[in-house]
Design a protein that fits this description.
64% of the residues lie in helices and 2% in strands. With 530 residues, the chain is mainly alpha-helical. The protein folds into 3 domains: 234 residues, MFS general substrate transporter like domains (Growth Hormone, Chain: A, Up-down Bundle), CATH 1.20.1250.20; 82 residues, no CATH class; 203 residues, Growth Hormone, Chain: A, CATH 1.20.1250. A two-stranded antiparallel sheet has the order 1-4. It has a two-stranded antiparallel sheet with strand order 2-3. The longest helix has 29 residues. The protein is elongated, with a radius of gyration of 28 Å. One of its GO terms (molecular function) is neurotransmitter transmembrane transporter activity. Keywords: Cell membrane, Glycoprotein, Ion transport, Membrane, Mitochondrion, Nucleus, Transmembrane, Transmembrane helix, Transport. Belongs to the major facilitator (TC 2.A.1) superfamily. Organic cation transporter (TC 2.A.1.19) family. Its main location: membrane.
Amino acid sequence: MPSFDEVLKEAGEFGRFQKRVFFLLCQTGITFSFLFASVVFLGQAPDSYWCRIPGAAELSERCGWTLEEEQNFTVLPLRLGNGSSSGECERLDVVWDTSISCASPVAHYGNHSVGNLSLAACHDDWVYEQPHSSIVSEYNLVCGNSWMLDLSQAILNLGFLAGAFTLGYAADRYGRILIYLLSCLGVGICGIIVAFAPNFTVFLIFRFLQGVFGKGTWMTCYVIVTEIVGSDQRIVGIVIQMFFTLGIMILPGIAYLVPTWQGIQLAISLPNFLFLLYYWLVPESPRWLLTRKKGEKALKIMHDIAKHNGKYLSPHYSEITISNEEVSNPSFLDLVRTPQMRRYTLILMYAWFTTALIYQGLVMRLGIVGGNLYLDFFISGAVELPAALLILVTIDRIGRRLPFGMSTIVAGIACFITAFLPEDIPWLKMTVAMIGRLGITMAFEIVYLVNTELYPTTLRNFGVSLCSSLCDLGGIIAPFLLFRLAAIWLELPLIIFSILAVVCGILVLLLPETKGISLPETVEDVEQLS
């Protein structure tokens, strides 16, 4: 009986069929990037807001004040009496009632100067110039509540983490395309609920669930693509990540055209419902069907692939070799039970954690240069395109291991040099820092491909999902590590990043080269990789 790779070679390793499926699934990268980075625009800080004195709304209505007049009566005396207060997080500790004069409310307090009046912290009495422009103004995430904005992004990353475990396992047990479609449906429904959440608690709950399902769409589409193409064509996984970058570049355009956060949330969530049409356009992974001992279904799909590719399968292809390995419910123990699998798993987990931590840390450290937020965000996304192009140029000629390891080591060295470059040569410091960003972006994209190629079909989706969950952990830790260490010494985070990156690069060089090698079907195949 022929092997799957032999049948795939005759049916076409990257013909019209695979190109169509590839293009369709690439769109998932765009919508996932919307979810990943949307907090930048959903959580924009309001341009202007101030704290309302209790009773001011009623007094303003009685006196016929405009909001500007009410703000002048509320904030201006506060600034005159206490120059250190802006009126955003504090207010005069008074209550305005019907005895207050419309012409001069503060005169009610007689000989007391405004500077002698006590101040009170503001709680839920903020007034915004644009009250529905972002979740910050919608849910009062300002002053003492500002940490809740960070919490919203942490909750999303926790959703990614949960999705990696639960949906990665489900895709290996119940099928790639089923979990992909359910995940797309979940992202769309949860996104709508997030847009109309009545309070911040509901917002967080469904943002978490949107993260769970979002991770399901991203990881599953990636695995489907790599499983239906030949070993020489698996760099298409890198191109999927170029669509992620494309989404990063499109997002500021959506945010610029849509004035409210609810509109932005709907604009980035509703496209997921279109992916449900893939039920009729994208088949189940034939590799996965073989591991579940469904050879007839797999063979039927292979005949369809050959037909669309203008090829013809030989009549003796009546059955395809399937794994003799018993398929059980995958677990972490399956990834560390044998020596080579254990080594690959531990190195890949560290690589995911390190590349994600450094990638997000460098993005936050460089920040977005002051000016037009939308333009700056677009440019920051465009910076990532050369990384993908460099990968496409080198990975099929040189291989996976060397570009992966060297890009990580270069990123570490660049971080170390940047930390000690003087501030009076800003162009040089920025250039070296961008080399570090380019290097870690390359590593961050290659790890997807290498992780997929080092696991057997029976454990691939679960293994990739589990290892990539360390990426989400790195994303959660990155801001805390960056800002806490920067408080000690501004460049200290770069020193830590450089150590982590160099160690990661050395470990990666211990992995086997997978260029041109057929995807392993069983754990035994993985153990025989050299």
